[in-house]
Amino acid sequence: MRVWPSLRFTGFFQTGYFLTVFFLTVFLLLLAGCDLYGKVGGDDTNIQGALPERLRGEWTYTPPGSVIPSEKYSIEETALQYGYGGGESDTDYRGTICFVSNYSTDSGVIIIEYTESPFYQNYNGNPFGAIYYRNLTNETVQLANAIKLSDLSSDDAATLEEAVGKFTRLRMGNYVDWGVVQPQRRVRN
C-alpha cells in the first residue's frame, strides 16, 4: 500500500508541514483570545451606554416586619436621587447622570455628578460618585453606592474621567459587598 509522502511520520517532519501546522495552530489560539477591535479578553474599560429603560423608576428596600422603606433610589433618564432612613424628605444625595456602562443586560454602573452632596460620614468632597446595579428585572434590582470597603469611606472622584476609570466591572469588589445588598423593589415606573 502506497502512503502519500507528506503524511508519513518522517515525511511530515522533514517537509516542514509540522512547523506550518504548529505555528498556524498557535496563531489561531492567540487570535481566539482577542477580539478583532484590538482589546484583549477581560478588558476592564467602561464603555459608554444608555441607561436601561427598565432601570428607570423608583426602587425601595423595606426591611422584613417594617412598613417604612429604609432605602430609596429614584432614577430618571438624566437624574438619580438616593435616600436612606425612610422619610419622604430623606435625601442623602442627588445627581445628574453623566455616564452609564452596561456590563450585561442586567448589570452595570451609573456615574453621577452630585447636585446635592452626599450626607454621610467620610464624604471626601469630590463631585463624581458611582452606583452599581445587578440582577435587574422588571420588578427588582440590587443597587449599591460605591464606597471603599476597606474603611467604609467615600472614594468619589474629582473628574468624570477619573470616575470612569475607577468604577469598573473588575474593581466592583473594592466598592460593593453584594452579600449584604438587599434587592430593591419597584414602586413606581
Report what the structure shows.
The protein is of the alpha+beta class and 189 residues long. It folds into 2 domains: 1-42, no CATH class; 53-188, Lipocalin, CATH 2.40.128. It is built from 4 helices and 10 strands; from the N terminus they run ααβββββββββααβ. The chain has helices at residues 9-14, 17-32, 160-166, 172-175, and strands at 57-61, 71-75, 79-84, 93-104, 107-116, 128-134, 140-145, 147-148, 153-154, 184-188. The strands form 2 sheets. It has an 8-stranded antiparallel beta barrel with strand order 1-2-3-4-5-6-7-10. A two-stranded antiparallel sheet has the order 8-9. The protein is globular, with a radius of gyration of 25 Å. The N and C termini lie far apart (77 Å).
Quick take:
With 189 residues, the chain is α+β, with helices and mostly antiparallel strands. Helices cover 17% and strands 32% of the residues.
Chain-wise SSE layout:
Layout: H1 9-14, H2 17-32, E1 57-61, E2 71-75, E3 79-84, E4 93-104, E5 107-116, E6 128-134, E7 140-145, E8 147-148, E9 153-154, H3 160-166, H4 172-175, E10 184-188
Antiparallel strand pairs: 1-2, 1-10, 2-3, 3-4, 4-5, 5-6, 6-7, 7-10, 8-9
Key terms:
alpha+beta, globular, two-stranded antiparallel ribbon, 189 residues, Lipocalin
